[in-house]
Amino acid sequence: MSDAHARRVQAQFGPSAAAYVASTSHAGGDDLERLLAWVRACRPGRALDVATGGGHTALALAGVAREVVAFDLTEPMLRAAREFIRSRGAANVRFAAGDVEALPFRDGAFDTVTCRIAAHHFANVAAAIRQVHRMLRPGGSFLVQDILGHDDPAANAFITEVERRRDPSHVRAYRGSEWKAFLRAAGLTVIDEGVVRKIRPWDEWTGRTRMTPEALHALEAFVRQAPERCRAAFDFELAGDRIASFTDRMILLRADRD
Predict the structure, then answer these.
(1) Domain span at 46
(2) Which of 72, 170, 253, 254 would bridge with 192, disulfide CB 3.0–4.6 Å?
(3) Which residues contact 232 (CB under 8 A, 6 or more apart)?
(4) How many domains does the chain have?
(5) Residue 158: inside a domain, yes or no?
(6) Looking at the domain assignment, is residue 134 inside a domain?
């Protein structure tokens, strides 16, 4: 990715590392359980968790795989993930920093690669998936979860603006058809897929990114003034003059290397 986008991501996530470790929406849920069921079916020896964030997925992998590498662009996030994972007693996780578009590992080094709730920050998803393909041994599996782009262009533009106001490192969410095209183009075959819904408590979601009161007020005004169909597409719940929550749809995909 470009140096400018890398700096944007690092500036966004470095100071928020502890908040992402504490995030309930990243720590568990039906989505993580679904991903883990796929991991168990793959029975990986070595697993790579790309854009590990607070380390929740890497920790879950540690209970299944012989060895896990937790990989992230942002050093403070990796330090927070290391402290969290070590505190849970997992000794088979090591940590590495770098760019997902230039993964610093040998070809075919991993049985499984995971990437959970992160790809919407990637400047070039297609390039990242090509790197994932290179990392996987033949027959290896890529398990990915991310927020799902909406088929309604107006609703999609609305939620993209919400995401970018809350987090300037957000790039975009992709539709299921786009994800499958990325995977096919990289030489991966979709084996399984699903969609889950994840409720986002507003105060927790906006609080993680350290929005200023002025920016938060402007974002809430933008949401309240948006067309009803756009808010309804994401189940925005209003509580008086405040926003209580909204709901993300998340796509989950398992794609194998031939």
Answers:
(1) 3-149+168-199+247-257
(2) 254
(3) none
(4) 1
(5) no
(6) yes
Q: How far apart are CA 144 and CA 157, in angstroms?
A: 23
* R_g of the chain computed on alpha carbons: 18
- pLDDT-based confidence at 1, cuts 50/70/90? low
pLDDT tens readout for residues 76-97: 889 999 999 999 999 999 999 9
- Residue with the two structure tokens 């209003």: 238
Count Cβ atoms below 10 Å from residue 248 Cβ, excluding itself: 21
Across the strands, what pairs with 243? 238
From residue 236, alpha-carbon distances to 48, 158, 165 in Å are 35, 12, 16
User: For the purposes of burial, counting CB atoms within 10 Å of the CB of 107, is it exposed (0-12), middle (13-18) or buried (19 or more)?
Assistant: exposed
In this structure, the number of other CB atoms found within 10 A of the CB of residue 151 comes to 11
Amino acid at 56: H
198-231 pLDDT, tens digit per residue, is 999 999 999 888 889 999 999 999 999 999 999 9
- Report the C-alpha gap between 67 and 85 in whole angstroms: 13
Residue 241 sits at φ, ψ, to 5 deg, of: -95, 10
Looking at residue 139, its amino acid is G
Q: What is the CATH number of the domain that holds 195?
A: 3.40.50.150
According to the model, what pLDDT value does residue 199 have? Answer: 93
In a domain, 159, yes or no: no
137: number of Cβ within 10 Å: 16
**Rounded mean pLDDT of the chain?**
92
